[in-house]
Amino acid sequence: MARRRENYHQFSSTSFPPPFLLTTMANSSLLPLIILLLSSAIIAKKSQHPPALSLNYYAKSCPRFHEILQNVVVPKQTATPTTAAATLRLFFHDCMVGGCDASVLISSNAYNKAERDMDINESLAGDGFDIVARVKTALEIECPGVVSCSDILAVATRDLVIQVGGPHYEVKLGRKDGLESKASNVEGRLGRANMTMDDIIRIFEGHGYTIRELVVLMGGGHTIGFAHCKEFESRLFGPKPDPSVHPKLAERLKAMCANSSSDPTISAFLDPISAGNFDNMIFKNLLNGLGVLGTDQAMASDPRTRPFVEEYARDPVVFFRDFARAMEKTSVYQVKTGKQGEVRRRCDAFNNLQMGKSKTTQNI
């Protein structure tokens, strides 16, 4: 005890450590606290900012992702030429309702009426759903639980556009599949064939698009698209047919849709001149009164949209450039990353049915 008191006495009264030693001692005692605070800040920052999308997201986790997707997409489009149009429309309908999160792929069940069963989505062709399901099945064999359905839909859409002659554009990866799909979320987020141009512009502007982007996306989507007779028959039949429909086109569509009441699957290509080819012909058609849908033809008559229709009819290079840019913008619209979503085991169902029940029973 005496020795300990003596040492203490010497230290406290006669031998203070030099200033640099005091600083070192203070720093060493605070170091664990500093590390803890920095670690907490980093973790908090990561939680506030989920992982960003990237072009090489699957480079290590599923390096053959694109090869496997191509092995499914190319022969499917070759065998069924309407696949590209069906998939492009499916992709757009998905992204415009809650973001590009594959929520449109979810099937309804006893607890929930999903997006795909809203009336505007009932005409979505089965080939779009089929291509995503096929790619997902192939990828689950190669790298199970890794690639999201939303990434599959985004890349398949791009590759199919290219396959039918459209432009290349970048698709960043890393989307997660959404955890919600409600039919009640759809209305007001997608354009309908009987809407006015004011309505269409309002919807697109609500999603952050310019009028130029509206024209390029509608024209680009419809250059390879098709529509069922019910979407445009009001322009042909009834007491007041639409006078803007070219007489020869009207005659052709009337003959085609004569039996549509008994066969609602009858459809017509929206570009009657170069159907199935991704080109700028649809804009030339609109300037000649050959628009099948009323909303398409309205783009050629409305002073807000007509200048862009004329520009794209003149210059296919500008059309391709603007379409590629608009699709890149669309592909990252309100995407989910990190813990905001999941990688579904199958694209038409949430991984956790109980979770789906708790989210959807409120909407029954």
TrEMBL record:
The chain crosses the membrane at residues 20-44. Disulfide bonds join 62-143, 95-100, 149-347, 229-257. Ca(2+) 1 binds at residues 94, 97, 99, 101, 103, 115. One of its GO terms (molecular function) is lactoperoxidase activity. It is an enzyme of class 1 (oxidoreductase). Keywords: Calcium, Disulfide bond, Heme, Hydrogen peroxide, Iron, Membrane, Metal-binding, Oxidoreductase, Peroxidase, Secreted, Transmembrane, Transmembrane helix. Ca(2+) 2 binds at residues 223, 271, 279. Residues 52-351 form the Plant heme peroxidase family profile domain. Its cofactor is heme b; Ca(2+). Removal of H(2)O(2), oxidation of toxic reductants, biosynthesis and degradation of lignin, suberization, auxin catabolism, response to environmental stresses such as wounding, pathogen attack and oxidative stress. These functions might be dependent on each isozyme/isoform in each plant tissue. Belongs to the peroxidase family. Classical plant (class III) peroxidase subfamily. This is Peroxidase.
